[in-house]
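Re: acetyl coenzyme *A structure - here you go.
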Amino acid sequence: MAKQVPCGVRIAGCGSAVPDKRLTNADLAAMVDTSDEWICQRTGIRERRILDPDKGETQLWLATTGLRNALDDAGMAGSDLDLVIHASVTSEMACPSNACRIAAAVDAQPAGAFDIVAACCGFVYAMNVADSLVRTGRYRSIGVVGCDAMTTAVDPTDRSVAILFGDAAGAAILVRDDDLNRGCIHQTLNADGRTWPSLFIPRKPSDLPPDREDSGARMGTLRMDGREVYKFAVGKFREVIEDALTATGLGVDDISQFVCHQSNIRIIESAMDKIGLPPEKVYINIDRFGNSSAGSVGLCLDQLWKAGKINEGETIIMVAFGGGLTWSSSVWKV
Ligand code: ACO
């Protein structure tokens, strides 16, 4: 463990992982009553990547691959990490945390390891927590990985959710930096638990809200009030970005990339219109990967990073919202 001297935080490397197997809108239209046209118009999604259990692919494998890629990018080994934070709603087991098993897989012991559950906000929550821990000077390096295999948690016959999700992991390695102004310069972690019935994964019948008729979908699969979540997300996306700009005194021109959770193209475009965000500053990959929940923002970050679109000295904003309901922002001086 590092000496307790306050410091800045640097992103030393990024990584991501997606399965090879593609699920197109045409594939879904052959399984449920939907169409490529409806899905494209309402969500912007054309295809998504899904785990292939026949090849032995699991959520744990996906998350571990994402973190390994980030370690490689940083030129570091698992043994260089003081802590592993994994964000997910689709972890393999309640105990142990996936973080412990990911840490073991990259040989990070005795690094601490824990999971965060914040649905689609998971990666942004984890980045904010990790930045705060490194910044105190107590931890030198933290591996953050957001990963969801939502295709293991949706009922494939429920068209209201089956069309939305893909499986992915996004990861980053955060290390201490002498420049105190480097790293997360503004962050928010928010939730309104009163709204939880808008989006939840029940384990047993008694988890269902008392006034709710069961949809008939099996336990362990996602229930979502799409219209409620949509309204919430459209409002929050704009609010969270505007609040981050006000709090930091920055304008849209000062930000090089707005790295947004990929939930629905219409939700992102609404924020772009209302705030006046130029398309070249708002990365979109939902057409190819769908909504990968806790994997989404980290996947975007890695793809931007590898494309050379996030450079030293630039400022980026990461934003997400999700089940809980939760919402979160993270402004970084890279
Ligand atoms: N294919 C064809 N028709 C469909 C489908 C489908 N897959 N799904 C619903 N419909 C029908 C509905 O039955 C409805 O028919 P009706 O008018 O005859 O009643 C019609 O299409 C419109 O349905 P809406 O639910 O109003 O469609 P909407 O435009 O709201 O789009 C969607 C639905 C895409 C789910 C949207 O509400 C949405 O994106 N919500 C936000 C979801 C989200 O972001 N979740 C986030 C986080 S997930 C996490 O945190 C783990």
